[in-house]
Amino acid sequence: MTMNMINIRRAICLLCLIILAVGCKTGEKFEPTNPEEAFNEGLRLFNEREYTESMSYLDMIKLQYPASSVADKAQYYTAEINFARKEYILAAFNYNRTRAVFPGSQFAKIALYKAGFSQYKLSPDYHKDQEYTRRAIKTLQDYQYFYPEKDSLYLKADTMLSELRNKLGEKEYRTAELYTRLESPISALIYYESVIKNYDDTKYFQNAWVGKIQTLYKLKREEEAKNAELTFRNLFPNAKL
User: 10 Å Cβ neighbour count for 194?
Assistant: First the structure.
């Protein structure tokens, strides 16, 4: 083998070693020396949607630097990762924890709103259990109570509240209609009255009054039916009964 060939092989081996060394170095995990560095790296990874890696840095802050100036940010972005992954139960928990542990944080307001938004995402169709619907309503009402200025988030909360309350009103109204079809007027009346009492801001309010009046006549409670009819005409003067 000529000396020239030997030199070429040595050069190729040296180049491979350099590439390998650089690759190993770039593959090393960043080791922050303070909580700010850890958060910046976690935020960078979050923005790149590297959620698992981002979470490791946020967890580091929460465990090792719980009293640092970025601890509230780490808690909030933990919830943001949950939300991005559609882990809405965990997201609601961590948004609420942001506000509970760091009430003076710049993230307290948005965290309360997004806790309600996460619960809104969990709200099922009207015929299913409505626990998360009620939770979402409570959280969004709390948001509007603590932050009454009618900004864009307040108005979005209003829209969600209207949808959620209509869902609860529909559940009660459909139950009343079911009992009517089953010829169980007393049970039907209970649910019509529930809509009237609790969901007068929904689109089922007027129909519930109609159902109540019809049911009272079926039960031959004519005096009550006539009084209900008078009330109906006062509430809905342009409606056809």
Answer: 18
User: pTM for this one?
Assistant: 0.83
CA angle 136/167/144 to nearest 5° reads 35
Give the per-residue pLDDT at 5.
52
Q: Are the CB atoms for 90 and 82 separated by under 8 Å?
A: yes
Task: Please state, in angstroms and rounded to a whole number, the distance separating the CA atoms of residues 238 and 30.
Answer: 70
For residue 75, with 0-12 CB atoms within 10 Å meaning exposed, 13-18 middle and 19 or more buried, which class applies?
buried
Give the residue ranges of the chain where pLDDT is below 50.
8, 11-26
